[in-house]
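Title: Prediction job returns without error message
Component: structure pipeline
Severity: low
Priority: P3
Assignee: unassigned

Description:
Job completed but the reporter wants confirmation the result is attached to the right record. Sequence as submitted:
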Amino acid sequence: MRAPFLPDFGKTGQIIFSAFSIAIVSFVIHIALAKLTAKEYNYQINVNQEWLALGTMHIVASFFGCFAGGSSLSRTIISAKLGSRSQLTTLVVVIILLIIAFGAAPLFKYLPKTILSCIVVIAMKELYMKICWSRILFRESTVDFFIFLVTFTAVVLININIGLAIGIVFALLTVVLRSQWAESTCMGRIPGTSDFKGIGHYRAAMEISGIKVFRFDAPLYFANAELFLSSMHSATGLDPLNIVAKLKQTVDEKKKIADDKISKKTEIIDKDEEIQLTVRRHSIQPSKGDVEVNKEAEDLIQLTHIIVDCSSFPYIDLMGVDALARAHAEYKAINITVFFACCKVAVRQMFEYSHFYEHVPKSYMFVSLQDAVAQAQYEQQQDIRFGSSAEAVPSKIMLPSINPDVTQSSSTNDK
């Protein structure tokens, strides 16, 4: 055995990449074998303890010029087949190896290597046969199957270091892509209970009149913030910006018609007649002969509240916070109140850090869906929405003179 010496750190830059790759591969194989064995014999492992053991082993071994160590796939499987239960098996193996190395090696000189190979292959037969599970994996989870297929192919065709890296990147990519096709649904209450379930999945779930409960089943972050808004518009059946544009167009058309009538009557007006013009904001009451209000406006009259179920948000980033604030502001412009319910601690903390409550009052946050629904129903009964709508319109998308109802009436002077 060599005497201990201080490693030469001058070559660190030349070997850092290779050393890092070996460390990752060694740790991955070690943990995979540990978990495989733990699952078979029903015991738990501590990943941090395994990490500490590997690190300590390599630090001490580095002062003696040892090679990087790690778990041996074949030796571990053989030990498990022989009935080993503890690390004392390694001590027995070391003693046998020392005997062979220092005296018994000539005895195995004429032993065919195929015999030793057969021992390893037979011991690992079950492990090799697990590749047949890919067919079952394909039926149960297509995404997991392709992660396995890409990683396996990359390891076989390239090498284990790059192959594992490709597998990790591909797995992360599938997570991002799946969040791009997150499921969203409107929820209804199960009669006789306070539970809310997806209407598309539970036939007994019934929507509450004038209230939409919306759920987006994915973390809300930069990659799917726009998807959240478009899904919300689709699920509720209302696109606020589209409605605002159409209502503005309706307002302009009605103003133009009214102005034309006024200008024509002004030219031939009698002294016995006068025109009175009344503009009422924030109301859609078409009179006889007026242009028919579009379907979106009719839906707008019926829908008063939208409740976003935030229980499906494990985390949220700044773009997600901005999406929630935009949803609140857009629907507020058309006099629909947006509540947020069941927010997790991490989500509420992000609201605090990002000053979300400067745009959305804390009174719009609820602990449960039932509380949010109860408040919405109370506001419907008290007609609070119509009393405070004029003050609630945000300045950024405020509609000046929105939906005026122009009425003309004539009166005769007593002249």
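Comment from assignee: result matches the submitted record. The first strand starts at residue 184 and ends at 189.
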